[in-house]
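Annotated sample (chain length 391).
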Amino acid sequence: MSLSNGRPYLAIPGPSVIPDVVLQAMHRASPNIYEGELHELTHSLIPDLKSVAMTDHNAAIYIGNGHAAWEAALSNVIGPGDTVLVLATGRFGLGWGEIATGLGAAVEVIDCGVQSPIDLARAEERLAADTAGHIKAVLAVHVDTSTSVKSDIAGLRGVLDRTGHPALLMADCIASLGCDRFEMDAWGVDVMVAACQKGLMTPAGISFVFFNDKADAVQSARVSRYWDWRPRTDPAVYYQYFAGTAPTHHLYGLRAALDLIKAEGLDAVFARHAKLAQTVWAAIDVWGSDGPMSLNVPTPENRSHAVTSIAMGSPVGQDLREWTETKCGLTLGIGLGREPEEAYFRIGHMGHVSGHMIMGALGTIDAGLKALNIAHGRGALEAASEVISSA
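Output written by the structure step:
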């Protein structure tokens, strides 16, 4: 007998839970791509995407995942031999740097570990030493999905300003957009990349590059016609939005998802994610009081509100994930990029997620700890419900 029969719950940190209204919007015949409704819908997406990113600048849509957005952003502003500084707090910061290496850039990495945010002092020391301005771009991940570390992007802009360094500030918000507060213009970000499958609650397949005039002014002469962001943001004809056929059904789904965000209100979206994250943390603190479980990021202000990474020890992290999925239909995230991978798991609490869903996930984890005889503190669900009750 299995209790997993019924609607499964995908609690990984992306792709996130897809709202029914998004699925329904996508469940339709293909539209006319040459005129009419699809064109108007696409035009309507741009200001709402900018609103979520908190920018008055440019938004380009690409057909591809977050890795595509990484390459699109870099292709527009760097060329072979340019120097890029990567400030890594996990697998995804390193991954963006690998894309830059593949484009011929000289990549320097300041590895800040997997439990702490970007070390602004080390960044400032390196940028201050670059008096000739060889570093063309600084790459930073706002929330690294592999570690759940959240970094101070506004503080990084302060570092660039204090040192008078001209490098572009480029931020990855793939995990954080629409979950953790991010303010592109107010924080002085020149280029930001995101994707649709996490806080924007749309099936994976489209991604976004937001950029300001400073970034556009240094566009690389080597950018290909496909990656070039200019036609995508100022198209003479409709197909230039996508350098070809539009991702039609994704656009309908994204329109429905953005409508959900507008209806809830962006501040309310941020507040909901913060409260759900605190609920998860409360339970883990109790479980870890008498067992091997612990939050990967020790300091609350450095933790993401979209995803939580948990250390368990090997192999019980993997054992717990297997139990929750096979016995109760709850899929938790793997310990992506961690060593050993089976010693960690992650809980995604991003996008279309409610209090009862999080409490259900925590209850399932609690049952798994008991079923597997994994040592843990008692009263985690009580602690979590106290957080929910205070909302």
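Annotation: The first strand starts at residue 9 and ends at 11.
Annotation: DSSP finds 13 helices and 14 strands in the chain.
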